Amino acid sequence: MATIYDVSQLAGVSLATVSRVMNKNTNVSEKTRQKVLAAMAELGYRPNTFAQSLASNCSNSVGVLVSQLDGPYYGPMMAEIEAALRADNRHVIIAVGHSDAAQEIDSVEFLLSKGCDALILDVEAVSDDYLIKLSQSSTPIVLINRYIAEISDCCIYLNNELGGYLATRHLIELGHRDIAYISGPAKKHDATERLEGHKRALAEVGVSFDPALFFEGDYKEDSGVEGMHYLFGQDKTFTAVVCANDQMVSGAISVCLERGMRIPQDLSFVGYDNIPFARYVSPKLTTVNNPIHEMGKMAALWLLKHLYKHDIEVENVFEPELVVRNSATRLG
Amino acid sequence: MATIYDVSQLAGVSLATVSRVMNKNTNVSEKTRQKVLAAMAELGYRPNTFAQSLASNCSNSVGVLVSQLDGPYYGPMMAEIEAALRADNRHVIIAVGHSDAAQEIDSVEFLLSKGCDALILDVEAVSDDYLIKLSQSSTPIVLINRYIAEISDCCIYLNNELGGYLATRHLIELGHRDIAYISGPAKKHDATERLEGHKRALAEVGVSFDPALFFEGDYKEDSGVEGMHYLFGQDKTFTAVVCANDQMVSGAISVCLERGMRIPQDLSFVGYDNIPFARYVSPKLTTVNNPIHEMGKMAALWLLKHLYKHDIEVENVFEPELVVRNSATRLG
DNA sequence: ACTATATGGCGACCATTTACGACGTTTCTC
DNA sequence: GAGAAACGTCGTAAATGGTCGCCATATAGT
After folding, report:
1. What keywords were assigned to this record (chains A, B) (predicted)?
2. Regions in chain A scoring below 50 on pLDDT
3. Cβ–Cβ under 8 Å, residues A134 and A63
4. Every domain range in chain A assigned CATH 3.40.50.2300
5. CATH 3.40.50.2300 region(s) of chain B?
6. Can you tell me the distance from the alpha carbon of B188 to that of B103, in angstroms, rounded to the nearest whole number?
7. Which of A159, B64, B160, B214 lies in disulfide reach of B193, CB 3.0 to 4.6 Å?
8. Residue range(s) of every CATH 1.10.260.40 domain in chain A
């Protein structure tokens, strides 16, 4: 592998000059520049990243920590992050936290030990305090899907409460009053926020929240199945179900279809996230759009702005929107 | 940040000794070892990866290049790769090729420039020759989802032809003879292989392949929709459709349901890939299992074995299996 | 001619690995 | 039992391939 030294010899200039044309092009004449470029091309020179990182203390890498890689949720986010960073010649190192505090912390340490310039974190289990402390260290972090008042500037998040509200209000507007709710795990912030929105919509029309029509799932399809079995097991009537994500809806609906029920005539459903499949499942899912890919992109742009000093605008909070399709209908 | 020098001072030993306890612990007495370990703990020492990589010419990173990050397909694969490598304290750098030759090559260059120890490639557009040449360079590569005879040892792939065969044979066994086929893009190897399998199954029972019952899609849901519109537009009868992946099935089925057709009574479908959603879509998809996560894991293990010299067994070729659920039924 | 500025060279780092060799102790051999 | 060989342990110093500040020099502007 050719080194910067070889290039300097071939071009007939000094090491520093070669280094200069690679970095800031300030203070090097166009003629020299071309000579050096030609030499680099001839040698097929490729700068040694490790040496660069060691000398400059900048790795051009950002660590991305997500809860999981499978499932329909994180793919679009990662795709946007990769694209935005890649366009700026930066690379992303991935790590998975599995929604477990110990593993999340371990992953952060791992990423830090790999010398990332910054971290993009989608963490659920770790405490606010931990993140606040982490944000004070020398490597910047940006949080996706989480709001912490003390470090709000580096939080990119969705107004989950509003999303939960929109889902339930939609059903209310369709005449439903007996609305069951299949939630995500209580330990996850977004799950509790969505539930809050649901309760607010209920309260707004004077309907009290009925714990018997509530089931705590884990965001996976199977818990949608479990949730429906549980709800059918209760001796309560309900005409609609809101699920805290689309995956649980799909599990829930499959139970109903197996029982010969018609959706949405016999039971209305509203989901959350608007994952790609929501449009192709039958019936097409009425759901709340979660612009996760935009949030991923914004996290990357945030870094470009704050860490790598690009001059761009970033926004921190995203608003969910209701997407009306065919899984919920007017009561009666 | 504490350096190895600080540790050596505190422990009262030389730099080399500290380095020795970090790497091969050979030739360092237990007493010194403990002193050094204690000093490292006291200082919260964390080795500088860049310096390590520069000096040892090993980055402990592997680049993973996939066609896309969104969609249901690559998540499970990435998850397995990350887990396997992470367990060995290695990290993965991601890049996306978008099924385009120029972008794939650019991504390979990118990954190489980032100093990866090895590359895991799931590339579709790039030529065999390019990959053969690449495999002769100093950084090892392993290919997922692709078979190239000249470098078969580093190929991890699925017997796609067999999968296509199994899908169609299943329908034939159910009495179907007029079987439409919605393919993936002809430029993708797996798509053409699956189609070959389909044709073989047809030929086996003396049914000739009818170009009018063939549609070339692009593996996305929308092209399943397009495909059905096209097929319905032909003046041909058919009683079953095999789609080259599950996403296209889901698009195709949605068209049928909109037309008031019943699946599978009016039309049978067989998919391919067995993506997680195949179980929750209604009807549940009869499909061909594609053990993509196992292939991802195997690629990582291959690297652990060949590059990092672990003593493990790896297998290169995976066999698809038919998963019978409810989207295809006996004719008549 | 004088000064401001553009340009290029020198050399000190950056934090680690590793070849080589020093040194002390053990073991072998005669 | 003495000298030599072998061995285990550890330190020195030379890479590894860059970046960057500082200084000298060439060039241009006034």
Report:
1. DNA-binding, Transcription, Transcription regulation
2. none
3. no
4. 59-159+292-319, 160-291
5. 59-159+292-320, 160-290
6. 15
7. B160
8. 4-47
Report, as an integer, the average pLDDT of B110-130: 95
Tell the CATH topology of A160-291. Answer: Rossmann fold (3.40.50)
Q: Using an 8 Å Cβ cutoff, are B308 and B292 in contact?
A: no
3-state secondary structure at position A91 = strand
Residue type, A266: D
Instruction: Tell the burial category of B191 from Cβ atoms under 10 Å away from its Cβ (0-12, 13-18, 19+).
Output: buried
Which strands make up the sheet holding B240-243, listed edge to edge? Answer: B214-216, B179-183, B240-243, B268-270
Query: Which residues of chain B neighbour A91 with C-beta distances below 8 Å?
Result: 93-95, 110, 114
pLDDT for the residue numbered B189: 86
Q: Residue A196 has which token pair?
A: 């809050």
Lowest mean pLDDT among A105-109, B118-122, B188-192: B188-192
- State whether the beta carbon of B32 lies below 7 angstroms from any atom of strand D: yes
State which H helix or E strand residue A233 sits in.
helix A221-233
Q: How far is the CA of B34 from the C1' of C24 (A)?
A: 21
The pLDDT value given to residue A32: 80
| Cα pseudo-dihedral B305, B306, B308, B311, rounded to 10 | 30
Are the C-beta atoms of B213 and B180 separated by less than 8 Å?
A: yes
Residue B25: pLDDT over 80: no
Strand partners, B120: B64, B142
Other C-beta atoms within 10 Å of A44: how many?
Answer: 8
Class of the domain covering B59-159+292-320: alpha beta
Q: Do A277 and B250 touch (CB under 8 A)?
A: yes
Residues 6+ apart with CB under 8 A from B172: B179, B201, B202, B204, B205, B207
- C-alpha pair distances (Å), B157 with each of A141, B142, B292, B298: 38, 10, 9, 10
CATH numeric code, B160-290? 3.40.50.2300
- Superfamily classification of domain A4-47: lambda repressor-like DNA-binding domains (1.10.260.40)
Query: Measured from the CB, is A25 under 7 Å from any atom of strand D?
Result: no
Q: Kindly determine whether residue A47 and residue B91, on different chains, have CB atoms separated by under 8 Å.
A: no
**Alpha-carbon distance A181 to A96, whole Å?**
29
Strands, E assignment, A267-331: 268-270, 287-289, 317-318, 321-323
Q: Could you tell me if B95 and B68 are in contact, meaning their C-beta atoms sit under 8 angstroms apart?
A: no
On whether the CB atoms of residues A81 and A112 are closer than 8 A, the answer is no
CA of B74: which chain A residue's CA is closest? A70
Q: Which residues touch strand C (CB under 7 A)?
A: A 12-17, 27-32, 51, 54-55; B 1, 3-5, 15-16, 18-20, 22-23, 47-48, 50-52, 54-56
**pLDDT of residue B291 exceeding 80:** yes
| A59-159+292-319 maps to CATH 3.40.50.1000 | no
Give the distance, in angstroms, between the CA of residue A165 and the centroid of all CA atoms in the same chain: 21
Q: Classify the C-alpha dihedral A305-A310-A315-A320 as positive or negative.
A: negative
Nearest to A249 by CA among A222, A271, A265: A271
pLDDT score at A26: 65
Share of chain B above pLDDT 70, in %: 99
In B155-208, beta strands by DSSP E? 155-158, 179-183
Contact flag B50-A50 (C-beta cutoff 8 Å): yes
